[in-house]
Each structure stands twice: as C-alpha cells, then as structure tokens.
Predict the structure.
Amino acid sequence: MLALATTQVWVHDQDEALAFWTGRMGFEVKEDITIAELGNFRWLAVGPRDSDGTAIVLMAVPGRPVMDEATKASVEELVAKGFATALFFTTDDVTAEYERLVAAGVDVMGAPTVQPYGIDFGFRDPSGNSYRVAQRS
C-alpha cells in the first residue's frame, strides 16, 4: 500500500517560506538538509505538529541545469500569481482556523464561505501560492 509522504511547493525564498510556515502557520521543520554535492541543494520540509509524517517540501525554483532561465522565469511568474500549486487542508473548525490565521497575519482571501462540500476559505504564502482550508460536510 502506498502512502503520501511529501508534496512540493515552489517558493521564491526558502528562508522566508520557512519563517512563514513555522512562525505564522505553526508547522514544524521535518527535514532541513543541504547537499553540497548537488550545488548546495536544500531539501526543506515542514508539516503540522504531531502529524503522521506528511510534509510540504519548500522547493526553491532552480536555475540551470534543471531549468533554463526562461522556464525558471515562467515558473516564478506562475508562483507569484498563485497558479503553481493546489494544496487543500482540512480542519474540524474552519472559523477558529480562519481567526487564528488572521491573528497570525496570514494573507487570507476572504472569510469562510459555504460550499457544496463544506465551508472553506483561502490563503496565500509570501511567494504567492494559494491554498484552501475546508471544514468538510
């Protein structure tokens, strides 16, 4: 049986993303490894405290040799517009989570709204990525 371990989001600045996810979102560092042999590639993973191990890898948009400059610029533009990821979180109390994130200074995108599947709202990270938080029906 397969289990989901990590998912990745592109970020403009890994240190800024780390501060956001640990400081404002309340996540913890799961892994922070720099690999010198791969040009100081940094594997930076965060996740909810007391989670089952599922984590978000905060991946810097790479340049050469992984991406040419035009591709890198395109990915960075999509990230900034909020169209480079689609992560959905669930909670038992969407109103409390919304209020917690607003108090933490997170860029929320509107108040919780009733949807066919429950109640949800969105937020953005400092790189521009969009996320949804839902209390399922």
The mean pLDDT is 93. The CA atoms of residues 11 and 109 lie 19 Å apart. The chain has two domains: 1-62, 80-137.
